[in-house]
Design brief:
Elements lengths: L14 E5 L4 H12 L3 E6 L8 E4 L17 E4 L11 H24 L6 E5 L29 H18 L7 E7 L1 E3 L6 H10 L12 E2 L1 E3 H13 L5 E5 L5 E2 H12 L9 H11 L4 H4 L7 H6 L8 H14 L1
Parallel strand pairs: 1-2, 1-4, 2-3, 4-5, 5-6, 6-10, 7-9
Antiparallel strand pairs: 8-11
Length: about 325
């Protein structure tokens, strides 16, 4: 396994700090690092009872939480209000500010630390690239979105969120700390309440066909490759800047949903037209951009550096996730 451990850093237990780590992705990372014997500290607005340490913070101002940054090895900031909502003016402001303000205050805590962390990883998103059918988007040649002809306002907003988030990150001066922006695709895990669980629920109710035209590309990453890629990035000191975390084989929405149906054993899934999705999005208070925008993102830097994926193609990943889902 190429990236299962952190080769140069695992001679002693690490201190891993995860601001905004109380959600699904944070829990995946916390479980992973804790299982390796590392010390995990999650910073959360409402700390929960967990096997690892949880410390309260507001994501806005310095406080006692900043003491956790001192002498830490790795900070992974996941803070940000969920985008699974209607993009009202108030929600838009909260989505942006929850990301930019928390990123800036973490940067300040790192600057003030006597012994700052060696590595700071900050969440970003594969949504930063343009709506695309014709070619894949890697870090070197990918085109930042926002100027696509006839793109809905909600799509341009998502790009604005991503670019302002990365600007806040890279504009925070932390000279003693290596910085990586994690342009992550959807992380697929069997955890209840996650993206895969939501898609599987559609299929179990006889839905789960193509969304809209079904031609839009879906970028994704299996949860085990997600944590392995984090390990890999931490281990290789020559990797910094923006890195795509996505499996190397994105596929169309139609193919993506068909693979989940086959893995589950469902032969039919009712499709949803674009107008049906628009109406449904209003009722469940979300945006169709999360479904209809085409994301054809590939991990150019990871592949060029030698990282190998355990789950490079979606049908095998879907089978593994279904098997694990059934066992939970």
């Amino acid at each position: 396994m190429v990236g299962g451990t952190i080769p140069r850093m695992n001679l002693r237990p690490l201190r891993v700090i995860i601001p905004g780590g109380s959600g699904q992705i944070g829990s995946i990372l916390a479980r992973h690092f804790s299982a390796q014997g590392h010390t995990v500290v999650v910073l959360a607005r409402k700390p929960l009872q967990t096997p690892w340490k949880a410390v309260p913070w507001d994501g806005i101002a310095l406080g006692s939480w900043a003491d956790e940054i001192e002498n830490s090895d790795l900070v992974i900031n996941l803070t940000g209000r969920s985008v699974n909502c209607r993009y009202t003016p108030a929600n838009r402001r909260e989505i942006i500010e929850s990301r930019t303000k928390s990123t800036s205050i973490i940067g300040e805590a790192i600057r003030r630390a006597q012994q700052p962390p060696r590595i700071w990883m900050n969440a970003s998103t594969a949504t930063i690239y343009r709506h695309v059918f014709d070619r894949s988007m890697d870090e070197a040649t990918g085109e930042i979105g926002g100027n696509e002809p006839n793109a809905p306002d909600t799509w341009r907003f998502s790009i604005d969120v991503a670019t302002r988030w990365e600007d806040a990150f890279f504009n925070s001066p932390t000279p003693g700390t290596r910085k990586i922006a994690l342009r992550s695709a959807m992380v697929m895990s069997p955890d209840r309440g996650g993206v895969f669980d939501t898609l599987l629920r559609l299929i179990r109710f006889g839905l789960g066909g193509a969304s809209g035209s079904g031609r839009q590309f879906v970028s994704w990453i299996h949860d085990r490759d997600f944590v392995r890629s984090i390990d890999y990035l931490a281990a290789h000191e020559d990797l910094d800047g923006a890195v795509n975390l996505a499996a190397p084989n994105p596929l169309t929405n139609s193919e993506f949903m068909a693979a989940i149906r086959r893995a589950w054993g469902a032969h039919v899934g009712l499709p949803a037209t674009e107008w049906m999705l628009e109406i449904g999005a209003v009722f469940i208070r979300t945006e169709t951009e999360l479904i209809l925008k085409s994301r054809r993102v590939v991990p150019g830097r990871l592949l060029a550096h030698g990282f190998g994926f355990d789950f490079p193609v979606w049908p095998a990943a879907a089978r593994d996730l279904v098997d694990r889902w059934r066992k939970l």
